[in-house]
Fold these 2 entries.
Entry 1:
Amino acid sequence: MTDAPDGVPVVVALDVGGTGMKCALVRPDGAVVHAERHPTGAERGPAAVVDTILEVAEGLAGKARADGLTPIACGIGVPGLVDEAAGVAVWSSNIGFRDVPLRELAATRLGLPTALGHDVRVGGLAESRLGAGRGVGHVLFVAVGTGIAAAHVVGGSAAAGAHGAAGELGHIQVRPDGPRCGCGRPGCLEAIASASAVGRRYTELAGTPLTAAEVADRAAAGDELAGQVWREAVEALADGLATAQALYDVETMVIGGGLARAGARLFDPLRAALRERMTFHREPRLVAAALGDEAGCLGAALLALDRLE
Amino acid sequence: MTDAPDGVPVVVALDVGGTGMKCALVRPDGAVVHAERHPTGAERGPAAVVDTILEVAEGLAGKARADGLTPIACGIGVPGLVDEAAGVAVWSSNIGFRDVPLRELAATRLGLPTALGHDVRVGGLAESRLGAGRGVGHVLFVAVGTGIAAAHVVGGSAAAGAHGAAGELGHIQVRPDGPRCGCGRPGCLEAIASASAVGRRYTELAGTPLTAAEVADRAAAGDELAGQVWREAVEALADGLATAQALYDVETMVIGGGLARAGARLFDPLRAALRERMTFHREPRLVAAALGDEAGCLGAALLALDRLE
């Protein structure tokens, strides 16, 4: 006899972003048996977003039961500052969360043990346990998209820090005389090397709006201006990763997010630039994230399963 | 009946530096019942240093027994790259260690369970458990002396990283156009804000050799050049601490080493400069180390006691 009632056990998993929520039913072995997406609707305010999260989670649990599955837990990943120990979404710039006790709200609504995690940390958890960092003891997962953030995962557990704010790699200063970051400081890594910064910089210089992926393509095709913007971003990213390696000393860095889709156009020059910056330090292995969009849901499910133990 | 034979139990503790070894007999409650110092004699080469370490440790164990105490373990802290799990001194620039299995050597010679740790990490362990970081879950210990290095201590345990090289705060780049560091990179924090860098910079500009403490004194007395050098160091150190906070997110930063002896002349402007750099991050509490020179021996003893459990 086991604790789980009849039916294949699944975790209700939600990865809540600024614009959309990725949702899934995840088996304990990491298999996704059902997936759906919903708009976050952040423009309606944080209370409405919380209502949507709870409704969607309840709907997923109901769907699981209707399909003969047994929901055993719920895992939710959200952006911003997250106090994982207390289960509170402390602060989020794009959704407006301010001290929302989301774990308790979901646990009560669903009647299931619930875990609340930080979006990038749950992504890092999934990549380190099921993805590109599998079998590695010390992993840094770096998400380079609209912003830049990292998750330091040691022994399969992501460090949250004292206030749920560890891993803010996007907000280390790499260019003291660089452009001002959204956070207010000049020269943050995110202001130079995020996918949005790359697109913005090219647009500023060329007058033509391009995405980071298009800048990478043009740079590869020999466009000089695109090449310069891409090189600046790669050099800044290498500076950021060198700093992270000096402080964390990991074996593998898993790079995910929009910028990583540039593939060899990113990884070849980034590896070379990082190698140049290593003096007495061991060079980490640089690899692309393997789980794509699903990492957040998988990681939220892993966090929920960890809490069951 | 307990595991310990008759007599008050003590740990044989050694803190091996580039020039001197601090040695002590430490009770499990952290009380130092005997202390002595020996020259490291690094100029004789690493094999001779290892011999000295083993002789001194054996002598301390003998002294303990002669005094009616019972040596129960041995703890050794060394600089450089240290693989704590394997008990190997992997690499050290100032002593010349290359893959020395020091834990095994000492355990065999003394017949005592032995732990090998990194000098700054054991210092951090002691400060976080017995010193200025007592009662705090997330501590960053930063030693600012000849060099700069840090130990990230969470829940009373110092992170070593994948290769024993975590916490190298001195080797993050804070001034891309700054002076070249001993490690080979330009603008490392250590090349600008270490006690030796402060003395060197003033000497370069003024032609008069001064120590960092003297620079701080002169700056406080209104000497303009000293004020400039001191400000540059404080600003660079604040940049380094801001980066560390973005990545680690600690509650308290404990600053030790020679520079911390400047007291309010360091801490007042450093706190202000760090506060300016915090945007959405929580500001850590900045405090001076409390254990002084004894931190290394105390931490080596704590590490040895941890291994007994």
Entry 2:
Amino acid sequence: MPAILVYQTSTLLFNVAFYVAIVAQAASAALAAGRRNMDLFGVCVLACATALGGGGTRDVILGHYPLSWVAAPHLLVVVCIAALATVMLSRFMHHLRWTFLLLDALGLVIFSTIGCDVAISMGLHPIIVIISGMITGIVGGILRDILCNDVPLVFTGQLYAIVSIIAGGVYYGATVLGMSYDVALISGIAVGMTLRVVAIVYNVEIPKFSYERDPR
Amino acid sequence: MPAILVYQTSTLLFNVAFYVAIVAQAASAALAAGRRNMDLFGVCVLACATALGGGGTRDVILGHYPLSWVAAPHLLVVVCIAALATVMLSRFMHHLRWTFLLLDALGLVIFSTIGCDVAISMGLHPIIVIISGMITGIVGGILRDILCNDVPLVFTGQLYAIVSIIAGGVYYGATVLGMSYDVALISGIAVGMTLRVVAIVYNVEIPKFSYERDPR
Amino acid sequence: MPAILVYQTSTLLFNVAFYVAIVAQAASAALAAGRRNMDLFGVCVLACATALGGGGTRDVILGHYPLSWVAAPHLLVVVCIAALATVMLSRFMHHLRWTFLLLDALGLVIFSTIGCDVAISMGLHPIIVIISGMITGIVGGILRDILCNDVPLVFTGQLYAIVSIIAGGVYYGATVLGMSYDVALISGIAVGMTLRVVAIVYNVEIPKFSYERDPR
């Protein structure tokens, strides 16, 4: 299989989904950078941290070396091109807030789904498989938001972390039930995207925890 | 020894202390989350990062795999239950600021004390043993505060990092002097908690460094 | 070679440059801490994260164990002494903003240059060599700024990440061309420092990306 296919043990669809997620996360980072008046190199650094930081954090936590972008450095080039293209195209975009949220959702759901695979291949516990997917899905966005000095999206607003868990759970459940990898992947992505978009449109929220007195 | 005992080479008291610290850190994260209006899944994510992030960071830095919660996934469940229970109980709590500071102190001191053990078992230098304890003790709280977009508690206010170093130092010194693990553990925790509580009550501060002119 | 020389496979000049960079980064952290009213232990923690966090992050990402300061714990002592000395001397300093920027630049350029070496010794791809240098160069400052709750310097203002890439590129290119390590090192540092200082003095900026509409 050519070196450009990073998920070498999985199907072509896995690799296509992986690149879609990386490009989506890079684009979401470029849009976030625009609010912060960053220069174009800062945009590239932020995009790499966002698009590759989730999988990288998962690999470091699981001791799964080498990291994907260290083994496949062309991923860094793909991320930078995607980020710079977003910068150039953004002046023609309308509805930037929606674009940002949809790109973020796409990265979240795809990474959550295919992120389960590393833990499965290492023979880890089902809980860790789901958590591995969640780390892959949410950490990139968390890094983006921390580097932009925001409270991460995962901690505010509508369904987010639970979308990641459900997308990963659908994928993992489908593979356990004997479905093909491709069907499991599409199922997980479809369920996750639907849930996240519905949550944004109808402002579906999990009960929040707040109190008036300040603990500090 | 049953799998629920995570510190398999150490005593029962070590494991009890470990669970107490994890629950305390999860609860401190839940209280911090309440100020930020987070949803219940966000609370769980923040609690896991806070309660397991210190030991995880230490293990990644020392190359000590697998991480405790990857080997013992039930820890994630314990943390989430502790965080959600805190959310439910917090409406009946008074003095939330004090509760937050005491839970944070308990996690700080216990993790600092038992965190030395991993470095000792790897045969590392005494300085690294103390630093290993300090990383285990303070990084969870730092992650909690960064994810909530605060300046970390360790960098403000009363004695904090030095409490961690002294608690770890007492534990390590006691074991070097031939005391039993349990006595060393209790000594480290007692000295550390006393110091931290005295520092908060009497507002004991290390000399601070500040200047008027802004370097940026 | 004595244990105090951390880069044991390289020349004496490498080790001198390494210590200069560590001291410079520790001092930049101490100056940043002064703005935040931190106590002296907080200053030491921040200085260690800043001075050793870049190389540590690189080593964790590349799976290059043990980390330099775990193998050579005296580095922690050097960093703390440098930070506390900066605190004591800062009251006699003028032009703190310039001092801060120059110390930060020195750490950035030296770490970027010598940070390429680890990746070269591991036989990694040229892109990864440059990125390894960049991570070593910029992550310490990013950690410093995040822990101080600022938007990292790398994402604002004048040429920064590109200085790191060029300094590393000059070093790597010179070694590939067969120059001695010392000549390559001095070339990389000289080019990088010149570029960064010119960028600050003449306010050289890469085109920035910004738009008026807010995506969130």
